[in-house]
Each structure stands twice: as C-alpha cells, then as structure tokens.
Design brief:
The chain is mostly helical. The chain has helices at residues 2-20, 23-34, 37-41, 47-71, 73-78, 94-115, 118-139, 146-150, 157-166, 171-194, 196-202, 207-210, 213-230, 233-236, 242-265, 269-289. It is 77% helix and 0% strand. The protein is globular, with a radius of gyration of 20 Å.
Length: 295
C-alpha cells in the first residue's frame, strides 16, 4: 500500500511540473510550426527537421509557459480558473518553475541549432523572450492592448518551422506570422469575455474588462476581416493551391459570420473561442496538406 501511495505521489508531482509547461497550448503552437514545414519543403520535410521542431518547439513553448507561471503566480492565485495551479496551490516551489523554464529554453535552442539551424533556434528563443518580457512582464498588467502586441510571441512558431526547412524567411512565412498575430486578439477576447470577473479580480486590464461588449466585438471583427485576407497569401505566392484557398476562405467566412452574429445578437463567446481553435488548426492543416495534394 505504501509503495502504491508513493507512486501516486510521484505521479502527481510529475503531473504538476508538466502542467507548468501548459501542454495544451504547446500542442496548438506545434501545429502552427509543423504545418508550414510542408510547403517550405515542397512536400515531406526531412524527419530530422520535423523532430527538431517538435522537440525544440515543445521545449521552448513549455519553458515560456513555466516562466509565465512563475511570474504570474500572484494573478493565478486570485483567479478561479487558475488558483489550483501548482504554484498558487503551494505544491511546487516558485523558483523551480523559473529554473525549469530557463533550462527548457536552453535545451530547445541547443536542439534546434544542432538539428536545424541558427535562425530557427534564434526565432524560438525570440518567441520566449517576447512572451516573457514583452507580454507577461510588461504589457499584461499595464494595457488593454496587451494581447494585441504580446500576441507576436505566439506568432513565432510558423517562422521557426519555415526557417528550419529553408534557413530563411520569405513573404509566405511572414504572412503566416500575420495570420496568428491577427487571430490572437479575437481568440483571447472571446475567452476574456467568459472570464471577465476573473480578470477583473486579478487586476488584469483585458479589453473585455475595461471596454463595453460592443467595442470588444467591433474590434474583434476588425481583426478577423484582414485575417481572412492574409490567410490567402500562401495561394498568391504559390505555396498552396486552389483547394487551400477555398478551404481557408470557407473557414474565414464562418469565423467572420460568427463574429457578426455575436455583434448583433451576442452570447456567442464560448462558440467563438472554440471555433477560433478549429479555425487555426484548419488553416495550418490545409497548409500542410497543400503540397501533399500536388499543389
């Protein structure tokens, strides 16, 4: 019985440390890093490069998440959604999260540098630095535009995937960066609408906390419209074909339609948040399939 209890205890500790890396977010970021590798390679990218991006990208994103948990542990303690996380719950020493985050990013840089190239490794590190210093430490607590500017950190993974294959960046890669940059505000604002009281209690000035609902919805729509346009750039540059174009336009029109309905009728925040994830996964899934379909 004692050994069983000990194994459970160890498993719980491991689970807590893993949770610091925010694995669900890591999976979404990985999808946006791997998808661009296929058109960049005009087919199947080399397995070693895919492995580098999976390992290096996971470690870099997980390390950034761990550092975010360390810095935001006071905010997490005041929000119902996050107060049971390991640091506010007192289950892990705060310093461990910081050490873990730094160590994971060092390892991520080494893996990407060794298996891919310096540009991919540097971009992954840049993503962490933007997320930690620009978004977490500077903007999150100081301006309602926090996620707009700070969202650049989450837009780095497509650049990492593209650079891992080509060793450079071009218009297609920059357009994919812009896709996530424009997608981020409507995505997070729909979440913030559902968690408005939490962010308010924590003193985080997310736009839905400081602005009326109509303003939030209008600004979300203002980002979604150019998002649909920018998503077509891979077709324009020849990185993807007609099937990709039809697919992303369909996904985008549904997204814009949901935002318009929410503006007029309201009460769609939950659906918008869920569909925004489907939208992003769909765009990068279509992107990965494009060269495999002979486009």
């Amino acid at each position: 019985m004692a050994s069983v209890a000990m194994r459970r205890s160890v498993a719980d500790v491991v689970q807590d440390y893993v949770s610091l890396t925010k694995p669900r977010i890591v999976l979404l970021l990985l999808a946006t890093a791997i998808g661009p590798m296929f058109p960049a390679a005009h087919g199947w990218p080399r397995p070693a490069l895919v492995l580098a991006v999976i390992l290096g990208g996971s470690l870099a994103a997980g390390g950034a998440g761990s550092i975010n948990c360390w810095f935001d542990r006071d905010i997490d303690a005041s929000m119902r959604r996050t107060r049971r996380r390991p640091l506010p719950g007192g289950r892990i020493p705060a310093a461990h999260a910081l050490i873990l985050g730094i160590a994971l990013n060092i390892l991520a840089f080494a893996i990407l540098f060794a298996l891919a190239n310096l540009l991919a490794a540097s971009l992954a590190l840049l993503g962490t630095l933007l997320y930690v210093f620009v978004y977490t430490i500077w903007l999150k607590r100081s301006t309602p535009q926090n996620i707009v500017i700070g969202g650049a950190a989450g837009a780095i993974p497509p650049l990492v995937g593209w650079a891992a294959v080509t060793g450079s960046l071009d218009l297609t890669a920059l357009a994919l960066f812009a896709v996530i940059f424009l997608w981020t505000p409507p995505h997070f604002w729909s979440l913030a609408q559902m968690l408005k009281s939490d962010y308010s209690a924590a003193g985080v000035p997310m736009l839905p906390v400081v602005a009326d609902a109509r303003t939030v919805k209008l600004e979300s729509l203002a980002y979604a419209l150019p998002l649909v346009l920018v998503s077509t750039v891979p077709f324009v540059t020849g990185a993807a074909g007609p099937a990709y174009l039809v697919g992303v336009l369909g996904l985008g029109l549904v997204y814009v339609g949901l935002l318009a309905v929410d503006l007029i009728r309201g009460h769609l925040a939950g659906r918008l948040f869920a569909y925004s994830i489907v939208y992003l996964g769909g765009v990068f899934g279509l992107l990965a399939l494009a060269p495999l379909m002979g486009q």
